[in-house]
Design a protein that fits this description.
Largest sheet: none
Helix content: over 70%
Distance between the termini: 110 Å
Number of domains: 1
Strand content: under 5%
Radius of gyration: 33 Å
Shape: rod-shaped
Structural class: mainly alpha
Number of helices: 3
Length: about 70
Amino acid sequence: MERDLREKARAARERAQRAAREAAAAAAARSKRERPSDEELGYIKTDDSFGKILADGLDDVAEWLQRHSKGRE
């Protein structure tokens, strides 16, 4: 009878460990899928430096000024 109880306890322990491993694996997979992407978090990746962005903006302003100053001459 004691051997039977030990066997049942061992089997129950193995089932519990297996269930815990499966639950942990499912939680890890779920957390990977649920993590928002960098774009969803608002992170923007760009190759432009701050100086290049300013230079492009100044070029646009210079072009705009040239277009609008031609009509006044």
